[in-house]
Write a structure and sequence with these properties.
327 residues; alpha+beta; L-fuculose-1-phosphate Aldolase; 2 domains; 8-stranded mixed beta sheet
Length: 327
């Protein structure tokens, strides 16, 4: 990715609190009896615009001073979770690794494990040209922070004592290199995702949840067997483009995000969206959501912090029920 990747990643990945709070403000003020008090807190936040996917990615990031509306309820301050900040690289590394282990536990519970197939990766905060990945052959339900393996951009293991999946190296090294803006990438062979990948179709705006991927999912139309060639990984990265997901034909799905949380959530909801779409077509002729409504809905449910937030209830359950992920 080049020597300047750390600076590029740092520039592209500030927390996008402003966009998320704007949406929460709209939702909360629409609820019965809800009211907000405005604190004049000015944040410089990189905000993803969802109106113009045809524009360059640089044009999708804007920096602005915004007023943050803080929710209150009958005289008391209400809390909303936001992405954490860290005092040290070591603290952030531990957090990312625990989230990665938690995401694997979620994948296992959701039936997204299939033998040794599947991998999720996250950049190391101290060395963004390296990333953490699951050890080859370890069941998702058993993975702890201490089990994770760190590899460099060439796929060489630089931390850990277990082998890694060659396909993880070929795909994820290329995807992380192609997208310096993303922190994590997830790929698995979910039953519905791989079934949809075998069809001559993409994800369609049939439901509200499906609209998160409206005009925001690529398709890699070639299948040549297990992905072990770095050149094919680069082609997958190109097919992903600036989207949050890509369909790998006759193979499965891949999602990316600016956190483990969002990448994992996009994968889970994409798998369920594939299931819903297949069921709809099996039942009859689905009714599609119109382009204008689908675009608007994508702006409400498909932006980065929405993906992060959707993962938080899952994280609360996983971290409570599986404290060994922190080991």
């Amino acid at each position: 990715m080049g020597a300047g990747v750390a600076g590029v990643v740092a520039a592209l990945l500030p927390a996008r609190r402003a966009a998320w709070l704007d949406v929460l403000h709209a939702i909360a003020t629409a609820s019965a009896g809800a009211h907000w008090a405005t604190d004049s807190i000015h944040l410089e936040a990189a905000v993803t615009t969802t109106e113009d996917r045809a524009g360059a990615r640089a044009d999708e990031l804007v920096t602005a001073a915004v007023e943050v509306a803080a929710p209150v309820g009958r005289g008391r301050q209400l809390q909303l979770p936001l992405p954490p900040t860290f005092e040290s690289v070591e603290q952030e590394r531990a957090h990312r690794k625990a989230k990665l282990a938690g995401a694997f536990r979620m994948f296992s519970r959701a039936g997204l494990d299939e033998g040794v197939a599947g991998h999720i990766t996250v950049r190391d905060p101290g060395d963004p040209e390296t990333f953490w990945v699951n050890p080859f052959g370890m069941h998702f339900s058993m993975i702890r922070s201490s089990d994770l393996i760190r590899v460099d951009e060439a796929g060489e293991v630089i931390e850990g004592d277990r082998a890694v999946n060659g396909a993880a190296v070929a795909i994820h090294c290329a995807v992380h290199a192609a997208r310096p803006d993303i922190i994590a990438a997830a790929h698995a062979h979910g039953p519905y995702g791989k079934t949809l990948s075998a069809m001559e179709m993409t994800v369609e705006p049939l439901t509200q949840d499906a609209c998160a991927f409206y005009e925001d999912i690529g398709k890699y139309d070639t299948y040549t067997g297990v992905v072990l060639d770095p050149a094919e990984g680069k082609r997958i990265g190109a097919a992903l483009g600036s989207h949050k997901a890509v369909i790998l034909s006759n193979h499965g799905m891949l999602t990316v995000g600016e956190s483990v949380d969002s990448a994992a959530w996009w994968f889970l909801t994409l798998e369920r969206t594939a299931q819903s779409q297949l069921m709809a077509y099996a039942a009859g002729t689905p009714r599609r959501i119109g382009p204008e409504e689908a675009t608007q809905t994508r702006g409400q449910v498909g932006f980065e912090l929405a993906g992060w937030f959707q993962f938080q209830p899952i994280w609360e359950r996983i971290s409570r029920d599986n404290p060994d992920i922190f080991d």
